[in-house]
């Protein structure tokens, strides 16, 4: 079973449904592409590529809303689940997973955001740990803070987004945090998403300037804590090509390990039946 660990679905910025202003709370109003991606387009791509399920991560440019993702999961409960966005009252965590399709939370450690300003003392980390709600965290330039969070909250399940790569960078510059990410493998509650791989490469498939970093992460985290995914709406290559690249171009990834990385491991990690 192939499971995509991250896709975005969204609607257009319009007066009755405005996006937040650029830069507010560490967000950006610039989408990955101008045409919104809806559930039907994603499903068509998944069907053509043999992808059974996908985790919807509501995108930052829409702000802290999950309505598009919730609607998609309600319409297609066998295909979609959600790592949602949270704002405000920590008491919402008590019933967070009562929302159909909601498996956990996704946070971006963007400079200027409340998560970075409060740092390791932010209420979310402890509350999510006590509620056993897994987090996907995009650390980018704040890998040091992510490391502090991991150490301070040893039962908080965390998935490091996009291999810990730095946003808008490619090659070695994108993976300047790789040693810090590998060090997190010592903590059994931490996993990594091997998502958007071609977006960090300056080369065509097999993306030889990036794939060695994936190998390092595999060696450190193992197949049960490394999750394939696409970030479909910003891929610079066909969706099927990314899947073929993982399935055929990585000689060290095969057999049972390949099955786990391509989908089974994230189903277990997020308790998605």
Layout of helices and strands:
Elements: E1 3-7, H1 39-49, E2 53-56, H2 67-75, E3 80-84, E4 102-108, H3 114-118, H4 123-131, E5 135-138, H5 143-152, E6 158-160, H6 171-174, H7 178-183, E7 190-195, H8 211-221, E8 226-229, H9 239-248, H10 255-269
Parallel strand pairs: 1-2, 2-3, 3-4, 4-5, 5-6, 6-7, 7-8
Summarize the structure.
The chain is built from ten helices and eight strands. The chain is α/β, with parallel strands linked by helices and 273 residues long.
Indicate the CATH topology.
Answer: TIM Barrel
Sheet of most strands: 8 strands, parallel
DSSP summary: helix tally: 10
Helix content: 25-40%
- Give the overall pLDDT as a whole number: 94
Low-confidence stretches: none
Number of domains: 1
Shape: globular
Radius of gyration: 17 Å
Q: SSE string, helix = H, strand = E? A: EHEHEEHHEHEHHEHEHH
Task: Kindly report how far apart the N and C termini lie.
Answer: 12 Å
The CATH superfamily bears the name Metal-dependent hydrolases
Number of strands: 8
Estimate what percentage of residues fall within beta strands. 5-15%
């Amino acid at each position: 079973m192939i499971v995509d660990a991250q896709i975005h679905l969204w609607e257009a910025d319009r007066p009755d449904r405005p996006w937040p202003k650029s830069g507010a709370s560490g967000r950006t109003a610039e989408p990955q592409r101008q045409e919104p991606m809806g559930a039907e387009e994603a499903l068509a791509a998944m069907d053509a590529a043999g992808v059974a399920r996908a985790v919807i991560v509501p995108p930052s440019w829409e702000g802290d809303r999950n309505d598009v993702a919730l609607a998609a999961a309600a319409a297609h409960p066998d295909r979609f689940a959600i790592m949602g966005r949270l704002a405000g009252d920590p008491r919402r965590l008590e019933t967070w997973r009562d929302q159909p399709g909601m498996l956990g939370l996704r946070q971006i450690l963007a400079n200027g955001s409340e998560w970075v300003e409060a740092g390791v003392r932010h209420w979310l980390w402890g509350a999510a740990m006590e509620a056993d709600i897994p987090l996907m965290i995009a650390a980018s330039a704040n890998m040091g803070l992510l490391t502090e969070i991991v150490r301070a909250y040893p039962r908080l399940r965390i998935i490091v987004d996009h291999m810990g790569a730095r946003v808008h960078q490619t090659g070695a510059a994108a993976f300047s945090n790789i040693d810090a990410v590998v060090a997190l493998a010592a903590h059994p509650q931490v996993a990594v998403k091997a998502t958007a791989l071609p977006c960090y490469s300056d080369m065509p498939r097999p993306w030889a300037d990036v794939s060695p970093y994936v190998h390092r992460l595999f060696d450190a985290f193992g197949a049960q804590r490394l999750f394939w995914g696409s970030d479909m709406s910003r891929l610079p290559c066909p969706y099927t090509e990314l899947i073929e690249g993982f399935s055929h171009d990585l000689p060290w990834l095969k057999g049972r390990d390949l099955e786990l990385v391509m989908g089974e491991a994230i189903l277990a990690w997020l308790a998605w039946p």
